[in-house]
């Protein structure tokens, strides 16, 4: 299905690019305005061909965006070199045309520029094509399967301990009522502790039979009945 979609968009784009080129043949390129109109249409044909691959799923769909790094590193040098040839082939005696020819002679590339002027339409097409390659997509938004599985899964109730499963829950998500789950265990020790009343303490007194009465020793035995 992906290959069929890409092939279809490429075919449609080729038809559109051919139409633009045909329209360019109907314009007189002997004037400066006609010249730029013709080669602007040819550059548009190259742009259409590049965008057809983008829209056809070459970058796996997604929203298109302009790749700044590609634009600066690849497109700008190619555009400057191609426009140099296009300006050299411009009819008339415009300012850019004269200076490009003069600068080409100064850096000893005048012969090369004159030879490449015969294929100015190829350079115009390449400008539009490379500019279309400057667009890219981030790809489709894919949901994390693990996160989706956790979200869609049915929560299993925590089991209880004790007789007849009526005791305390043992699940990891169990939080005791009335206590902060994030608080340390020693936090409960700071809370006031309620104590129950104790029963009276029984005291047993044993009198020693040895010695005089003032020297009696008393032994107290305390029993805690709590």
What is the average per-residue confidence, as pLDDT, rounded to a whole number? 75
Gross morphology: globular
Count all strands and give the number. Answer: 4
Largest sheet: 2 strands, antiparallel
Q: Helix coverage percent of residues?
A: 40-55%
Tally of separate helices: 7
Strand order of the largest sheet: 1-2
How far is the N terminus from the C terminus?
A: 84 Å
List unreliable stretches of 5+ residues: 215-220, 222-226
Order of helices and strands: HHEHHHHEHEE
What share of residues are in beta strands? 5-15%
Structural class: mainly alpha
Write down the Rg: 46 Å
Set out the fold topology:
Blueprint: H1 2-25, H2 32-55, E1 64-66, H3 68-88, H4 95-106, H5 110-116, H6 120-133, E2 135-137, H7 145-152, E3 202-207, E4 218-223
Antiparallel strand pairs: 1-2, 3-4
Helix pairs in contact: 1-2, 2-6, 3-6
Would you write up a description of this structure?
It is a single chain. The protein has a domain at 2-137. It is mostly helical. The two termini are 84 Å apart. The strands form 2 sheets. It has a two-stranded antiparallel ribbon with strand order 1-2. It has 7 helices and 4 strands.
């Amino acid at each position: 299905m992906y290959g069929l979609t890409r092939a279809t968009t490429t075919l449609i784009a080729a038809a559109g690019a051919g139409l633009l080129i045909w329209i360019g043949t109907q314009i007189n390129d002997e004037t400066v305005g006609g010249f730029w109109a013709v080669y602007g249409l040819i550059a548009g044909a190259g742009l259409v061909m590049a965008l057809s691959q983008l829209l056809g799923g070459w970058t796996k769909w997604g929203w298109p965006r302009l790749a700044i790094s590609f634009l600066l590193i690849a497109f700008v040098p190619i555009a400057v070199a191609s426009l140099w040839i296009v300006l050299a082939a411009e009819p008339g005696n415009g300012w850019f045309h004269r200076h490009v020819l003069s600068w080409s002679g100064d850096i000893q590339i005048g012969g090369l520029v004159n030879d490449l002027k015969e294929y100015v339409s190829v350079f115009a097409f390449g400008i539009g094509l490379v500019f279309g390659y400057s667009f890219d997509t981030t790809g489709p938004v894919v949901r994390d399967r693990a996160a989706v599985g956790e979200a869609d899964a049915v929560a299993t109730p925590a089991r209880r301990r004790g007789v007849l499963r009526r005791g305390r829950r043992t699940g990891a998500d169990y939080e005791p009522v009335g206590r902060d789950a994030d608080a340390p265990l020693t936090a409960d020790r700071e809370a006031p502790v309620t104590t129950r009343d104790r029963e009276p303490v029984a005291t047993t007194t044993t009198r020693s039979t040895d010695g005089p009465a003032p020297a009696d020793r008393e032994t107290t035995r305390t029993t805690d009945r709590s």
